[in-house]
Amino acid sequence: MSGVFWLLLGGVVYLWYRRRQSRLTVYRLEPYLKILEPIPLCGAPDVVWRRQGSSTLIVGDYKSRTNHRIYESDIIQLSVYRFLLLHTQEKAVADYGYIHFSDGSRRQVKLLREKQLGKLYERYRRILAGKIEPAKVCRTEYCRHCSHRAICNRKN
């Protein structure tokens, strides 16, 4: 009987320790970050976390939508923030981030690597230069908030 007690107690202590280690603490809120090299980018992540007991930074973004769906644009947005942190902070930055939803829940997402962001940036520059045609979205409501709507040749 005492062996079972110690096993259960050990399990409780382990779970408490893991939970304590997984807590996030705020490193910075909405920091405006800007770089010119290797890719000119700027942005302000909603939150930059630090895992308790670690100096590694983790990007986070808050979404007011009620569904918990993760979109490709969410991953790109967080990846840009990670890229900015990598080039402005002298700390390690996690290769994942968190999307926080209005109900208080969050989802961890794996972020793009620097090389993948570089390819997206080059594609963007080629589109703006008229060298390649942009891919069309399947739903026109995506165009509603696009900053390139005025120059896009898509018929709305």
UniProtKB/TrEMBL annotation:
Signal peptide: none annotated. GO terms for biological process: DNA repair. GO terms for molecular function: ATP binding; DNA binding; helicase activity; hydrolase activity. InterPro entries: PDDEXK-like_dom_sf, PDDEXK_AddAB-type. Keywords: ATP-binding, DNA damage, DNA repair, DNA-binding, Helicase, Hydrolase, Nucleotide-binding. Transmembrane segments: none annotated. Residues 18-153 form the PD-(D/E)XK endonuclease-like domain. Pfam families: PDDEXK_1. It comes from the Bacteria. The keyword Transport does not apply. This is PD-(D/E)XK nuclease superfamily protein. It comes from Propionispora hippei DSM 15287.
